[in-house]
């Protein structure tokens, strides 16, 4: 059971990253909210280094792969992100803001690590930033007034990628705090999936009835 849930989570999140890169390049935008992207990149970079510093492990290799994928998403943000901001946001201001937000992402991860230690920090920070991400995706949909730079594949894979470790850590390992955060993530993820599906349902309802 543990291995199956771990594999589901790993595969689902890999799908999220690959699809985010594809959609970002296709739509000339970034497909992950920048605050969530900063935290994700910092989490995967930090724990890839920590894992591999004590020896090669499957999770360490996966974290490296995810961190490299995150770099590609970071590129789409740096390449296209300024175009979505008001004109008064100059290149130097955009660069300063980007350094600040990505630097904050690393600072947050290191503070979790210093306070909670390796075992708890990986879990607490991951689920808290996942909850933030779930809300920010809805905010992204609202800010862009539609699904530009987003996709149902990202939404569903993100939900499954978080649901699997929720079951693993929250249920199998009996961690109520993580279970509660995971349930909240699912609530927001399902709401986001509903937003992306809404135009499809609207098109179906607007189709003319078949003639007899």
Automatic annotation (TrEMBL):
Question: Which controlled-vocabulary keywords does the entry list?
Answer: Membrane, Transmembrane, Transmembrane helix
Can you tell which superkingdom this protein's organism belongs to?
Answer: Bacteria
Instruction: Please identify the protein, giving its name as recorded.
Output: Bacteriorhodopsin
Name the residues that span the membrane.
60-80, 92-112, 124-143, 178-197
Report the locations given in the UniProt record. Answer: Membrane
Q: How does it sit in the membrane?
A: Multi-pass membrane protein
For the keyword Disulfide bond, the answer is no
In this record, what's one Pfam family? Pyr4-TMTC
Q: Which InterPro entries match?
A: PaxB-like
Q: Which PANTHER family match?
A: PTHR42038, TERPENE CYCLASE AUSL
Query: What main location does UniProt list?
Result: membrane
